[in-house]
């Protein structure tokens, strides 16, 4: 809980307003109250939306096979909602305004969600109204009906989060006004001369020209900075502590419940054995680090060999701070902060373009991936640009990096690789040839007087005020690691980083039919206008993806942008095509790295109109979302749900708008 940062009087009032129910009043019964409270964040006192007075809200403990009854009361002056992320349930209970007849929870009203628990594992809940899931969130732990194959002496939730003192709607307005508003690490003239010394003038100038012509910046790994990073609502100073005794097995349920932050998670001095992904059991795999996209969950077993203390350490990929908790044998112990790592620079290879002699190379990963597809087309990433080419990766095997040699490209028309200059459509760019060095620097976003004041760069967060900066990035040169290049870089040599190819389900899939068709999902956007989209269409204009009940479908997510996108489908799980044959792991969220593709299969057995979107809050709010519609079966006997209810003949959805996005906050005018 974020209780440490509530004003005492407000916190006391919040406690009085919470029902006297620390756990469920009866099996699967909870009451959650959405309200506002004053919080101190990074030295500023601000009002934030909360659940039961805290950020995060209470952890819900449920059991497979029972009926959940959860009443959500709205005591704020704006509409709200709660979505049960990863939970299999009827569409109207999914909690997304405008979908399946659910229209949100009005101010002063309440709504009771009821559904049968059909699964077990680690999940979470959050608002799906506007930008509220910045703070309206909490964890869900579902106990299995049968004994778990994973034994542990201790069991802890580790809910990672990010929070900003800024109003979340104002953050989106800032991004709309200037997509680089929060990029405080733009390359400068000093960086240019430093690169000339190490790389030479010609290669440095060529690199600047390439980035300048794309109007992108290789330091732009994350859209928003200035966050405080949390573990179960506590900053590093709050020192969330997980107790253990030497020799015990500790289960940590890692949840990335942030709004915009991809985390690199590690426990220096202790291996993590991954035993579940997105709530589903997987064959154990030992790793040193995990890169977690927003909304991903991994259950890990840790067996500390000594007394500790051990740091549970999570760094955002842009290295602007950290979240820190402690594995300790007694309260009061605090693990030291591990060595901080330098910020990664994006590379041309991340754009899927022929660069540096890598044309046609396969990505560097442990094994071939079943059904994965190298992306050769980079359409519509920026208005007036047409970019394509081969993709190559050098570095650690992070999620989404797949070896495409010998893959099945059935139904895919990628064409051949072409020289980069053939893919750069300069029409409308006004370069008239190679831009001057000054133009290139301006294209990269260097600050020559018209950008943000220099003091934005001084504290690493972009706040021109005093405050607690214990989680801030270190001064340049404090790390012994050289600055890495490439989205999937940034890990020490020899580190075992979890790769999607390493995930295998504990048991073989029962449905191994080949897909009946392939649906292409191009992840597109225009950074200059901060407009994010799928297949070039924002949510307001997009036609739904429609599938038949029982249809076997492949979705291919091809990322044509410079940023990684954690893609999430409501209502059902993806089978990740990762080279494991019938042991394809189930996930509800997959990271699609820049310039890469990720392929999944699903069987459409959940009737309804389900959101399919990027789980980066401001990408979704700016249009990277569509409806995935599973049409009801035609015969009466096929319209029976797993819990015995009869399905309706028609669904509540429109042609792309799915019930009116005004209530959902997706209109992009926030």
How do the helices and strands line up, and which of them pair or pack?
Elements: H1 8-17, E1 29-41, E2 44-51, E3 60-63, E4 67-74, E5 83-85, E6 110-116, E7 121-126, E8 137-143, E9 154-163, H2 168-177, H3 189-199, H4 201-214, E10 228-231, E11 240-243, E12 250-256, E13 263-266, E14 272-277, E15 280-287, E16 289-292, E17 297-302, E18 310-316, E19 323-328, E20 377-379, E21 386-388, H5 420-423, H6 437-443, E22 517-526, E23 531-534, E24 545-548, E25 552-559, E26 565-569, E27 574-576, E28 586-587, E29 589-592, E30 597-603, E31 608-614, H7 617-621, E32 625-631
Parallel strand pairs: 1-4, 3-8, 9-12, 11-19, 22-25, 24-32
Antiparallel strand pairs: 1-2, 4-6, 5-7, 7-8, 9-10, 12-17, 13-16, 13-18, 14-15, 14-17, 18-19, 20-21, 22-23, 25-30, 26-29, 26-31, 27-28, 27-30, 31-32
Describe this structure in words.
The chain has 670 residues and is mainly beta. Helices cover 9% and strands 28% of the residues. It contains seven helices and 32 strands. The protein has helices spanning 8-17, 168-177, 189-199, 201-214, 420-423, 437-443, 617-621, and strands spanning 29-41, 44-51, 60-63, 67-74, 83-85, 110-116, 121-126, 137-143, 154-163, 228-231, 240-243, 250-256, 263-266, 272-277, 280-287, 289-292, 297-302, 310-316, 323-328, 377-379, 386-388, 517-526, 531-534, 545-548, 552-559, 565-569, 574-576, 586-587, 589-592, 597-603, 608-614, 625-631. It has a six-stranded mixed beta sheet, with no helix packed on it. Strands 23-22-25-30-27-28 form a six-stranded mixed beta sheet, with no helix packed on it. It has a five-stranded mixed beta sheet with strand order 11-19-18-13-16, with no helix packed on it. β1 and β2 form a beta hairpin. α3 (189-199) packs across α4 (201-214) and α4 (201-214) packs across α6. The longest helix is centred in the first third of the chain and has 14 residues, at 201-214. It is globular. The model is unreliable at 1-26, 353-397, 401-478 and 647-670 (pLDDT under 50).
């Amino acid at each position: 809980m974020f209780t440490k940062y509530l004003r005492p009087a407000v916190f006391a009032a919040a406690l009085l307003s919470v029902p006297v129910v620390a756990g469920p009043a009866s099996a699967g019964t909870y009451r959650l109250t959405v309200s506002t409270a004053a919080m101190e964040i990074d030295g500023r006192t601000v009002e934030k939306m909360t659940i039961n007075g805290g950020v995060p809200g209470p952890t819900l403990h449920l059991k497979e096979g029972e009926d959940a009854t959860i009443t959500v009361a709205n005591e704020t002056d704006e509409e709200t909602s709660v979505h049960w992320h990863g939970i299999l349930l009827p569409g109207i209970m999914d909690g997304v305004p405008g979908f399946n007849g659910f229209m949100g929870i009005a101010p002063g009203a309440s709504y009771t969600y009821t559904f049968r628990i059909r699964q077990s594992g680690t999940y979470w809940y959050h608002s799906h109204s506007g930008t509220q899931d910045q703070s309206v969130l909490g964890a869900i732990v579902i106990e299995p009906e049968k004994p778990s194959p994973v034994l542990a002496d201790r069991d802890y939730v580790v809910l990672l989060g990010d929070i900003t003192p800024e109003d979340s709607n104002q953050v989106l307005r800032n991004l709309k006004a200037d997509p680089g508003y929060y990029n405080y690490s733009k390359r400068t003239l000093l960086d240019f001369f430093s690169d000339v010394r190490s790389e030479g003038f010609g290669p440095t100038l060529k690199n600047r020209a390439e980035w300048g012509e794309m109007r992108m910046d290789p330091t732009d790994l994350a859209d928003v900075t200035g966050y405080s990073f949390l573990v179960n609502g506590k900053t590093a100073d709050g020192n969330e502590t997980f107790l253990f005794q030497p020799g015990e097995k500790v289960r940590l349920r890692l949840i990335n419940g942030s709004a915009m932050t991809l985390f690199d998670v590690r426990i220096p001095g202790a291996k993590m054995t991954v035993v579940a992904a997105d709530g589903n059991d997987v064959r154990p795999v030992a790793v040193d680090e995990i890169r977690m996209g927003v909304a991903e969950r991994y259950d890990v077993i840790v067996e500390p060999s000594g007394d500790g203390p051990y740091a549970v350490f999570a760094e955002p990929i842009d290295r602007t701070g950290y979240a820190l908790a402690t594995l300790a044998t007694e309260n009061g112990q605090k693990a030291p902060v591990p060595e901080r790592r330098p910020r990664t620079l994006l590379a041309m290879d991340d754009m899927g373009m022929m660069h540096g002699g890598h044309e046609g190379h396969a990505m560097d990963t442990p094994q071939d991936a079943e059904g994965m597809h190298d992306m050769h087309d980079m359409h519509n990433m920026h208005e007036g640009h047409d970019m394509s080419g081969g993709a190559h990766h050098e570095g650690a095997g992070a999620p989404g990096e797949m070896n495409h040699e010998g893959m099945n490209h059935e139904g895919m028309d990628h064409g051949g690789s072409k020289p980069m200059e053939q893919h750069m459509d300069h029409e409308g760019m006004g370069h008239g040839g190679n831009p001057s060095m000054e133009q290139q620097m301006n294209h990269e976003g260097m600050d020559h007087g018209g950008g943000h004041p220099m003091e934005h760069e001084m504290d690493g967060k972009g706040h021109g005020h005093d405050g607690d900066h214990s989680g801030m990035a270190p001064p340049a040169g404090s790390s012994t690691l050289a600055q890495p290049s490439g989205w999937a870089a940034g890990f020490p040599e020899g580190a075992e980083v979890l790769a999607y190819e390493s995930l295998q389900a504990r048991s073989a899939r029962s449905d191994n039919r080949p897909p009946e068709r392939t649906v292409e999902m191009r992840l597109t956007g225009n950074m200059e206008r901060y407009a994010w989209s799928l297949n070039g269409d924002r949510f307001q204009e997009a036609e739904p993806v429609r599938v038949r009940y029982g249809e076997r479908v492949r979705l291919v997510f091809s990322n044509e942008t410079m940023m990684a996108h954690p893609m999430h489908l409501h209502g059902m799980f993806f089978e990740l095509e990762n080279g494991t044959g019938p042991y394809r792991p189930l996930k509800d969220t997959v990271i699609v790295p820049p310039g890469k593709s990720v392929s999944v299969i699903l069987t459409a057995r959940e009737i309804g109109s389900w959101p399919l979107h990027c789980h980066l809050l401001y990408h979704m709010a700016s249009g990277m979302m569509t409806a995935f519609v599973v049409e009801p079966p035609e015969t009466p006997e096929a319209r029976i749900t797993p819990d015995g209810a009869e399905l309706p003949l028609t669904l509540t959805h429109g042609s792309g708008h799915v019930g009116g996005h005004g209530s959902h906050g997706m209109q992009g005018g926030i």
